Amino acid sequence: MKSMKGLVACGFAVLCVSSLAQERDFSQVEISTNRLADNLYYLKGAGGNIGVSVGEDGVFLIDDQFAPLTEKLLAAIAGVTDEPVRFVLNTHHHGDHTGGNQNLGRAGVVIVAQENVRTILKNGLTSGDLDQLISADERAGLPVVTYTDSVRFHLNGENIHAFHVGPAHTIGDSFVHFQNANVIHTGDVFRTTGYPYVDGNSSGSFLGIIAGYELLLEISNPDTVFVPGHGVPSSQDDIREQLDMIYTIRDRVKAGIDGGLSLARIQSGKPTAEYDARWNNGKIKAPVLVEVIYNELTN
C-alpha cells in the first residue's frame, strides 16, 4: 500500500488535473459511438475510451471522461439504448477517466472502483487534510463501492470481471473483462497512442506495466478484443508487439546499468531509436521513459 504522504501527493495531482479540465474548451468535442459486440460499445471523445454495456438490466459504463462532456456522453448512450445508466466503474483516478463522476453520482449512478482510487480522489478534495469534511456534492463523485482485488457484475447477459492490476500505470488500475463478449477494457495500462505511461506520483511501475501486458496475454485468446485507455481496439498481436518493444528497451537500459553507464549516457545512446517514429508522439517521450526504467531498475 502506498504511504499516506504519497497518497496526499496524488490528491494534489487530481486537483491540478481538475483545474486544467475546467480551463479547457469542450464545446467542439464530439462523442463517437463504436460497436464492439452485441450490446457492447466504446465511446471516443476527449479523454479515455469509455466502455458501454447496454441491455434490459441497464447501462454499465467504464470511465466517464470530463464533467463538461456528461450531457454529450448521455446523448450518445441514448442513441443505443433507452435504459438508464446504473453503474460506472473507474479504471483509475485520472481526471480524463473520472471527471464525469460527480454529475453521474448526483443522478444516482453507482460509482465503483478499486479502493485506492477512492482514497486518491477523496484526498484530492481535502488537499490531504483527512479531518476536512467534504460536501454532499463532492461526495457524489466518489466511488461508493470499492474492492481490493476484484468484483463481478452479472448484467445484460454478461459476466463482467473487474480486477486490480498493479501498481502499473497507477496504484489503482483495473482491467475489466467482458468474458462472454471476449472483450477486455485495459484502462491506461495499455494504450496505442504512445509509449507506456508510468505515473510516478501515483506509485506507478514500469515493471508493473510489463506484468499487466503479460497478464492480458494470459487471460485472453487470439479472438479477444482489447480496448485501450487511449487509442484503438487491439489484438493479442498488438499486445505482443508492444511487449517485445518494452522488453527490448528494458534490456538495453539494464545492459547500460550493468556496464556502469550513467542515465545521461544511456539516454544519449538512444535505446528507443527504432521505435520513436511510431511511439514517441504520445504523452511520454523517449528520454522520460528511459529515465523511468533506469530509476526502477536501480532502486
Fold and architecture overview:
The chain has 299 residues and is of the alpha/beta class. It has 2 domains: 4-234, Ribonuclease Z/Hydroxyacylglutathione hydrolase-like (Metallo-beta-lactamase, Chain A, 4-Layer Sandwich); 237-299. 38% of the residues lie in helices and 19% in strands. The strands form 2 sheets. It has a 7-stranded mixed sheet. Strands 8-9-10-11-12 form a 5-stranded mixed sheet, with no helix packed on it. The model is unreliable at 1-17 (pLDDT under 50).
Map the helices and strands.
Elements: H1 4-23, E1 32-37, E2 40-44, E3 50-53, E4 59-62, H2 70-78, E5 85-90, H3 95-98, H4 101-106, E6 110-114, H5 115-126, H6 136-139, E7 145-147, E8 150-155, E9 158-164, E10 174-178, E11 183-185, H7 206-218, E12 225-227, H8 236-258, H9 263-268, H10 276-279, H11 286-298
Helix pairs in contact: 1-5, 7-8, 8-11
For this structure, what is the CATH class of the largest domain?
Alpha Beta
CATH level-3 fold name of the largest domain: Metallo-beta-lactamase, Chain A
Q: Identify low-pLDDT runs.
A: 1-17
**DSSP E strands, number:** 12
Distance between the termini: 18 Å
Averaged pLDDT, please?
A: 93
The helix-strand sequence is HEEEEHEHHEHHEEEEEHEHHHH
Strand order, largest beta sheet: 1-2-3-4-5-6-7
Look at the structure and name the CATH superfamily of the largest domain. Ribonuclease Z/Hydroxyacylglutathione hydrolase-like
Largest sheet: 7 strands, mixed
Tell me the Rg in angstroms: 19 Å
What is the helix tally?
11
What percentage of the residues does DSSP assign to strands (E)? 15-25%
The helical percent reads 25-40%
Structural class: alpha/beta
How many domains? The number is 2
What's the CATH architecture of the largest domain? 4-Layer Sandwich
Shape type: globular
